TrEMBL record:
<dbReference type="GO" id="GO:0048066">
    <property type="term" value="P:developmental pigmentation"/>
</dbReference>
<dbReference type="InterPro" id="IPR015943">
    <property type="entry name" value="WD40/YVTN_repeat-like_dom_sf"/>
</dbReference>
<dbReference type="GO" id="GO:0031084">
    <property type="term" value="C:BLOC-2 complex"/>
</dbReference>
<dbReference type="InterPro" id="IPR035431">
    <property type="entry name" value="HPS5"/>
</dbReference>
<dbReference type="GO" id="GO:0005829">
    <property type="term" value="C:cytosol"/>
</dbReference>
<keyword id="KW-0963">Cytoplasm</keyword>
<dbReference type="Pfam" id="PF23756">
    <property type="entry name" value="Beta-prop_HPS5"/>
</dbReference>
<comment type="subunit">
    <text>Component of the biogenesis of lysosome-related organelles complex-2 (or BLOC2) composed of HPS3, HPS5 and HPS6.</text>
</comment>
<protein>
    <recommendedName>
        <fullName>Hermansky-Pudlak syndrome 5 protein homolog</fullName>
    </recommendedName>
</protein>
<dbReference type="InterPro" id="IPR056445">
    <property type="entry name" value="TPR_HPS5"/>
</dbReference>
<feature type="region of interest" description="Disordered">
    <location>
        <begin position="477"/>
        <end position="501"/>
    </location>
</feature>
<feature type="compositionally biased region" description="Acidic residues">
    <location>
        <begin position="482"/>
        <end position="491"/>
    </location>
</feature>
<dbReference type="InterPro" id="IPR056499">
    <property type="entry name" value="Beta-prop_HPS5-like"/>
</dbReference>
<comment type="function">
    <text>May regulate the synthesis and function of lysosomes and of highly specialized organelles, such as melanosomes and platelet dense granules. Regulates intracellular vesicular trafficking in fibroblasts. May be involved in the regulation of general functions of integrins.</text>
</comment>
<feature type="domain" description="HPS5-like beta-propeller">
    <location>
        <begin position="14"/>
        <end position="343"/>
    </location>
</feature>
<feature type="domain" description="HPS5 TPR">
    <location>
        <begin position="699"/>
        <end position="1041"/>
    </location>
</feature>
<dbReference type="Pfam" id="PF23758">
    <property type="entry name" value="TPR_HPS5"/>
</dbReference>
Amino acid sequence: MIPVVPVESCTHVLAEFDCLDPLLSALRLDSGRIKCTCLSVSRKWLALGTSAGGLHLIQRDGWKQKLILTHKEGSITQVSCCPHDEDFIAVATSQGLVVVWELHVERRGRPERVSVSWEHRGQTVTSLCWDTAALRVFAGDVGGKVSCVRAGSSKLGKGSAFVMFPVQTITTVDSRVVQLGYSDGHLVVSSLSRCYLCDTEREKFWRVGNKERDGEFGACFFPQGPAGQRGQALLYCARPGSRIWEASFSGEVLSTHQFKQLLACPPLPLVSYKNEPHFNPAQMSPQSLAFPRLLHDQNLLSWTDSAIYIFTPHSGQVLLWTEVKDVVEISVFRHELFCLHGDGRLSHLSLMSPERCVERLMKRENWTLAATVCCMLQHAIITSRARKSLPVDRLEQLKAQLSSASQQQLIGQLEDVISKLEPLDSACSSRRSSISSHESFNVLDCGIYRVISRRGSQSDDDSSSLANQSMLEEERLKEFGFTEDEQAENGETERDLQFLPLPFRSKPPRVALQAVRDSVSSFVKKTTEKINTLQMNADLWARPDLREGGQGEVAVTVTPLPEEEDAEECSSESELLELRAATKKAISQIQDPMVLLDPVSLGDALREWAPVLERVLGPEDHTRPTEITNQEQRTLEEEELVSSMSCCVVVQPEIYSTNPDESTTLTEEEDLGESMPCSTAPLRAPFPPLANHVELIQLFSPKPLPPDLQADLSQLACLYLEMGCPGRGGIESVCVFLRRYFFLLDQERVRKMCMLRYREHREVMKAYIAGMLEFTQASKVVEVIQKSDLLKSLLYVTHTHTHTHMLYDKHGEVAVRAYPQFYPTILPSDIMAMALPSHFLPYLDNLVQSRAEQQRLSFLGSLLQPETLRHDWLELALSHDAPQREDTLTPDGHPRWRSHFFSWGYGRLLSLLIRLPANLASKQKMLEMCRTHGYWMGYLYLCRELQRRPEAFSAICRLDDMTLLEGDDGIVPQSLDEWVVLLQLSQQIGSNGSTDWSIRVSPENIILRVVRVFGPDRALTALQEHGIQVDLSSRSTLVCDLLRMAEKRQSSMLVFNAKLKNINIKVPVYTK
């Protein structure tokens, strides 16, 4: 049961609709070497500063990288886009340089530095702020200095571009500058101790309030009236204990807003595509927070490292607060938030009303998440104003998209919400009732007539015109372009109220093709009653003899008479009755546990049912015309038939409906080829026999099937495919059955079947993907994927498995690197079946690294299903982007000297794989794999785990690195006997003469290490007892002498301390 959010907290919600990980991947900012350090956003740009000194300017329209500005003066610490002139951007580097860039985008010129300031040399700039009227940039640093640099640009007047404006120091405050803000000639400076207000025109300063504070507290101006009116903005300054001061331009504190008690309410969950939101209604304790920054747009915003807080300043209330982890910096533009996280990730959040959030989720076909938000925020959904975005019909369609098998509880809760919906106000409802009270039509701009039926009619639920389907696809694709103005969106919604809400279907191609079928069948039904139509049967064409140059004759047939049609209908009905009887018998048999659990009995039951299915719904066995006797002519005819129909699908001729008069109107100008894979769509395509390698994909049943029979056939067909098509044999027959009866199969069940049952047979997966590609071919998303770049295409993916295959075929490894955003919809097993091994590894590495560091090991363990994947993935990681074996192994298979210093491309993944819990046999196998590939760090770790310490000591001696005997990851000898074994191995193997004497695994270094552990006398005596000759250099002898002296002094101190404890000292007591 989904908890319901209280009514007072239902006004707004933070939602995350898309993933920016592909953007960072394309910019190479997802690696550990280069990270995003700061960001700024405007109407046009998303600016990202990096640790390498680069500034990436991303055009938000299409998310394309437009420019990259490089800086050799250090990493980028601050960046700020000019709010009202997006041709300017200010940047601060780690060396204290402040640069103002003019981009010259409109003139298509090269960007140039119009101002440079070294006023903060050697100091870290902590805040940047624009005065857009005068094109000035204010900068504050850790030392408390605030300076001003003016951009020299021709936009300021003639000659301004040739003038070098001096850098002006505004003031130096008592401590580090936390935040700067500017409004109408006034600059606010928030330091660690207090806020200062500066009139930049009259050069006067005020302190805001009288009380100091200690820590990072932000401050900003918040406009209260129309722009340009002086004195309308108010100043808001953060205070300790979740308080915010409201002050005037003169620095006078007008009021103090207390949010400590208000933040005791439970947080609203983040609505994200990544996981389902969970609301905990339990009341929390009051929060005493320090708001490090204050941002404003339409509301006041702040954040901590664990949550985002949004306030309404005019009422002093909490609009919402949401838990978002590891937030370092936020940039705001209108209702959009761009968040930079501590690990370099970016997230894009939108602040919106619940009904707008549900509407956008439905347009993106995220049905489960949309229904969850509806139930959780139902107090906002049931209000009358929400009907503008969410009419009752649209919520009914949302309910229809949910699975009745697995989401019954969610459906019941959504039905309860729908029953409580309030209608629109009288004006709107009367306008809508006049439209929907009877059937009417509208003429669209393109000339298509659209029928508007009564709400709840069967035609609305079961059919849709091509015009509606096309508009649906366009609306859904447009939704991926981020809206820039909430008011404009609301206006568009109100204008669309006069039309019937468009249906949201999860399978657009099926609907489009069904609309074609309805139109054709309706047209044929009305015309065949009056006239007879001549039809050309492709099977009766007489082919010309090309060798003799003769002209072939064309065989023309006349459509059957009504009596013949009645006979065909009777025959079809009898076949369906036969199929229903066979299906019912098979269903009753598999319900018996004795049959279901016995593979032989189950195969016999399915083998008896399959021929009936083949006879009724299988391909027709077309006989050849008697006139064609020449075998070569028949071969030509078959080749031409196959080539002409290789891209065709079978279109359902009629559907089983309770209302035979229902149909959808199509205009005569409409081209059916636009919605079908090819221009010719036969009602019944001739299939080759089962043994033939050519088999078309059948998306729809060749005969109308009742829903109950369709469900039973689907169950048996999936079971028959899982059993490997008993009675036919061979993987080829499985592929043919999959293609021939694709319309009966559960797509998700078949996908899992390909992953598990047919994992070793890639041709089955290819057949499934071919069917899915044909199924989605009519969608406009396919056209976008084929024509657009990767970043844009990723935003349009809806049929995830199908579209990811298309993207991989087009972009290769680059596409696979971006697929972790689709987890868990797309699993690693899916990528393994899709991609090459060398492409799968970057995906797996990115997927694991996307989790928090403390969660990576357990997350990787959860992906190992089945357990044998551990060795497969380890073998892949050891074989790709790895050192050459001749560089890590000697010809006799021993470690090569210092070869453990080689870099392994997937070292992080390798380290996690060998650290996962495993049984003894598995660890021994991994040990052998690491040894044969020369991955010595993993080999030493597994030797320690398996207690094979002598082998580890031998490898360390050959690697010749004493650091491997130290630290938590090293193998430290635990007894004197192990030290002796190590010393003997080092004498046998010998050192290769490293220039670094301190880390050589030489006998002398080992003896010194033993001396430090056990003491000089004890260690040297024990070594001599084991027959080891001790030859120490003068340096080592001196070390032993110093250790003896230290040991004696330590013993003397211990004796002295013991004597002091035994002495009884009496303290005299003085009395008056």
